[in-house]
Amino acid sequence: MVTGSYHPEVSGTANQCRQLVNALNEKVSFKVLTTTRNSNLPRRGKVDEIDVFRIVVGQRSVFKSIFIIPDFISFFLSNRNEFQIVHLHGFTNKSMILVLLAKVFRKKVVILLTSVGHDDHQSMKKRGLLINRFFSRADLYVGLSPRFYSIYESMGSKGENFRLISNGVDISRFCPVTNEEKAILRDHLRLPRKMKLIVFVGHFSREKCPDILFETWECFLLDIFPDTGIVFVGATDPDHYEVDTDLVKEVKKLAKTYQGKRVFFVERTHETEKYYQAADIFVMPSLREGLPNSMLEAMSCELPVIVSELEGVTDWVVEDSVNGLLFSPGSEVELSEKLILLLSNADLSIALGKKARKTILERFSIEETAKQYKNLYLSIS
């Protein structure tokens, strides 16, 4: 399994990969190859008894990335007799060398398409002839949501090389708590007990749009709901490859007056579930996603969710006014209307949360995801 980050690093991808590996560890033998910018992490170690190999990459420089190619080759040659399948989570320039090696040594290649607008088939074609040529050599593509397949099909591709397998949730970890447990959690997390808290989970990028949530709250909710606040959980560190430094400065400057009182920033945590469980509403204003783990995890915790309506992605999971609320991407007015609706109607919030949890139990457990991957691996091994 090849991924851009893995535990103990914190990201949706790292968490999803780890859950999948653990769910399949008695049926499938894994080795994990990951890149990292943290030179303090061991180059080789074990996580949950699984061998993890780390290759340290530099900052955002194509030139510097060339120097890690020998590390990829060395890993592949040293371990080539111990795996049959190369499972890529997403596709970047660095993936090309692994596809080349896989084809030379007759290994199967599975590519998980992680985000519409980034590594779907149409987007890969726009990224250039060379990278698209290597991308096209995969034996199987896995899409997280139906939008990936509609793009795949529109490119004239054949359906037998595509599987739809959603992200999965550890439903025992991401679960609802009682009001008493929520109060204790807030004390533990140093969050105010009596405030209505809106939680955002994701790194600070233009596509995740934390600024839209903050501006909506400040413009439309600040005065009429003085008992509300926001908890931002996610990377703001500029060393994180997806963080927009200017956006971080912009939001933190605007939030300075409220920070620590009504606006809270959590840079890094291995206990994301506690922030869902301590919150009252989850908001995801993203412009682009594949199938967001944060949305599924919040729903699993029985939170009412308000998410941007992304065709074939979020609207495949959230049915408006049934198990959550949808709004047009980028619309602060619509987002404010949805927030006001939930803050004014406790019964609706509870009902949406319960339906959200039911949706996850029925369709998005990690056990079901693992079962589908096991069948996929067996079909091509």
Keyword list:
6-stranded parallel sheet, Rossmann fold, 15 helices, 381 residues, alpha/beta, 17% strand, 2 domains
Outline the structure in words.
The chain is α/β, with parallel strands linked by helices and 381 residues long. Helices cover 41% and strands 17% of the residues. It folds into two domains: 2-168 and 366-380, Rossmann fold; 179-363, 3-Layer(aba) Sandwich (Rossmann fold), CATH 3.40.50.2000. The protein has helices spanning 12-24, 62-65, 69-79, 95-104, 121-126, 129-135, 146-154, 179-189, 210-221, 245-255, 272-278, 293-300, 332-344, 346-363, 366-380, and strands at 2-3, 31-36, 44-47, 50-56, 85-89, 108-113, 140-143, 162-164, 196-201, 228-233, 263-266, 281-284, 305-308, 325-327. A six-stranded parallel beta sheet has the order 11-10-9-12-13-14, with helices on both faces. Strands 1-2-4-3 form a four-stranded mixed beta sheet, with helices on both faces. A four-stranded parallel beta sheet has the order 5-6-7-8, with helices on both faces. Helix 8 (179-189) packs across helix 11, helix 9 (210-221) crosses helix 13 (332-344) and helix 12 crosses helix 14 (346-363). The model has no long low-confidence stretch (mean pLDDT 94).
In short:
The protein is α/β, with parallel strands linked by helices and 381 residues long. The chain is built from 15 helices and 14 strands. It is 41% helix and 17% strand.
